[in-house]
Amino acid sequence: MEYRRLGRTGLQVPVFSYGTATFGGGGEFFKAWGATDVKEAKRLIDICMDSGLNFFDTANVYSRGLSEEILGQAIEGRRAQMLLSTKATFPMGDGANERGSSRQHLTAALNASLKRLKTDYVDMYFMHGWDAHTPVAETLDTLNGFVQSGKVRYVGCSNFPSWHLMKSLAYADQHGLARYAAHQAYYSLVGRELEFEHIPFALDQGVGTMVWSPLAGGALSGKIRRDKPAPKDSRLGQINFVKYNDETLFNVVDVLDSIGKERGKTVAQVALNWILRKPTIANIVVGARNEEQLKANLGALDWKLTNEEVGLLDKASAPVIPYPNWHQKDFPSLIPSLPSVTQ
Questions:
Q1: Quick check: 141 and 177 in contact, CB under 8 A?
Q2: Beta strand 83-88 pairing with 122-127
Q3: CB 202 within 8 A of CB 209
Q4: Computed over its alpha carbons, how large is the radius of gyration of the chain?
Q5: Own/partner pairs for 164-172, CB < 8 Å, 24+ apart?
Q6: Which of 163, 164, 154, 195 has the alpha carbon at shortest distance from 277?
Q7: CATH of the structural domain 3-334, one choice from 3.20.20.100, 3.30.450.40, 3.40.225.10, 3.90.280.10
Q8: H/E element holding 284?
Q9: Do residues 219 and 276 make contact, with C-beta atoms less than 8 angstroms apart?
Q10: 307-316 and 267-276 helices, crossing angle to 10°
Q11: What does the alpha-carbon distance between residue 242 and residue 33 come to, in Å, rounded to a whole number?
Q12: What's CA 193's distance to the chain center, in Å?
């Protein structure tokens, strides 16, 4: 297992973490993801640990706390051997203060998460989304207090627009507070928007990127093709929460399939390996409903796509360049060179 430094911190993280949104299956939305119980969770965690994957990611909103509860029970007795991350911000109830990134909500949310996880600290605490109503100062002062108390080791954010993340980093740096070490964001071969602002920003500001849904909600698993729709019992067949262009998807899968056949790898393994070749990527959050899927995902490691193969995939998945990027692309001397990232 390869380890990478997370942003500007001294924390070394495996290039894969295991996402536990499949634990619990509470409610129709998360039931479509999976319904892993404690027994199966222990088996999956054993496989992860044996491979060197010791980073486990969850969130309080996953099955309304059930994912955290199952993870907490499954790791009893070996907490010190692993890294844990969880998240808060999204609604956990109907009350006015049961959501957001206020001091009131975050304090209650963290304490509840720690109780469910059966631990007195988490290694990473993410703001699951940005709260446009709570002042940045209030959120960051609160998070810094968590770090000072020892309940949180590092703080991160998820699904932030780049301007809000920059605003947060500026405040943290100005006041000597814990800064966001990582941004957990969606990125895939059919969702490359991250390349236009977030990746250049992350390079400049030293923020590590953790990727969620690297297979576009299962669209890049190899199970769907032009003449083969998603199986009805699959997550993608029940819930399609990631947006992509169908023709781009099919073109990308054709190239993935071609490379996979030459390299003896699956479509999904090639798609995951492509992400690991991109700048600022410290970690990919992979999920799996069962042991077979988990082992298949681990097959994306310990080998590397060639520059030529990366180029073929870049070309097949090339996104529409937004303004002002298209205006600047003819002036390369004004834009720093970013390896393997669309300018």
A1: yes
A2: parallel
A3: yes
A4: 20
A5: 164/130, 164/136, 165/198, 165/201, 165/207, 166/201, 166/205, 167/136, 168/136, 168/139, 168/140, 169/205, 169/207, 171/136, 171/137, 171/140, 172/140, 172/144
A6: 195
A7: 3.20.20.100
A8: strand 281-286
A9: no
A10: 100
A11: 14
A12: 15
Enumerate the H helices of the chain as residue ranges.
27-31, 38-51, 66-74, 103-117, 136-149, 162-175, 198-205, 235-238, 246-263, 267-276, 291-298, 307-316, 325-328
Query: Whose structure tokens read 């605003």?
Result: 167
Active-site residue, from 3, 18, 62, 186: 62
Please state the pTM of the whole predicted model: 0.93
Peptide bond before 324: cis, by omega within 30 degrees of 0?
yes
Each residue's pLDDT expressed in tens, for the chain with a length of 343 residues: 999 999 999 999 999 999 999 999 877 777 777 789 999 999 999 999 999 999 999 999 999 999 999 999 999 999 999 999 999 999 999 999 999 999 999 999 999 999 999 999 999 999 999 999 999 999 999 999 999 999 999 999 999 999 999 999 999 999 999 999 999 999 999 999 999 999 999 999 999 999 999 999 989 998 888 887 777 766 666 667 788 888 999 999 999 999 999 999 999 999 999 999 999 999 999 998 899 999 999 999 999 999 999 999 999 999 998 998 888 877 877 766 666 665 4
Q: Token pair of 66, please?
A: 């059930």
Is 62 marked active-site? yes
